[in-house]
Amino acid sequence: MTSAEQMLDVAVEEARKGLAEGGIPIGAALFSADGAVLGSGHNRRVQLDDPSIHAETDAFRNAGRQRGYRSTTMVTTLSPCWYCSGLVRQFNIGAVVIGESRTFTGGHDWLADNGVKITVLDDERCMTLMREFITDNPELWAEDIGE
Question: Residue ranges of the CMP/dCMP-type deaminase domain (predicted)?
Answer without folding.
Answer: 2-118
